[in-house]
Amino acid sequence: MSSKVVAIVGSYRKGGAIDTAVEAILEGAREKGAQTHTIYLREQHVEFCTNCRQCTQSPGAERVKCAQQDDLESILKEIEAADAVVLGSPVNYYNATALFRRFLERLLGFFYWPWGNNLLVQRNKRQSRKAVLVASAGMPGFLIPLATGAPRALRLMAKSFGAKPVGSLWIGLVSQEPHPRLSARTLERARHMGWKLA
Prior knowledge:
two-stranded antiparallel sheet
């Protein structure tokens, strides 16, 4: 039975560095027999978290459904049916995009945080999925984990999904032109990361 890999893309534009890198990762996964699907957050109806914390009050190992009526539940069900995830976001103002973070904030249902407790606890700590994390920025790539909050946001999302990162791709210097092209070396690295997910 083939594995399933789902990508979550928090980019505002189609065809940019993140889209290209994520597609190369998924191509590598398909080469090893995986089924893949990409969820573009810009095309989904995902409301802002209202911080009502209803989803955090009930104990138990299972995620609690958010009370809001939007596309969140269908997205999460698809991720929960997957064996691996690819999480990608450009860096805007030293962090993941607002689009990506809006989705991240809606993942509180994966945690138990009753009123009166100072700390939230992950409901299910099993890391049964694999993850690859992808971020792009105008700065050199090696600075992304040193100077921005994007990697932490990506890791938090992976943790919420019970996914253990098996690779990361930090793509730098993408602001040199309106439509940056990724190098053959970067695309090859991305494909190899896809192999790890299949």
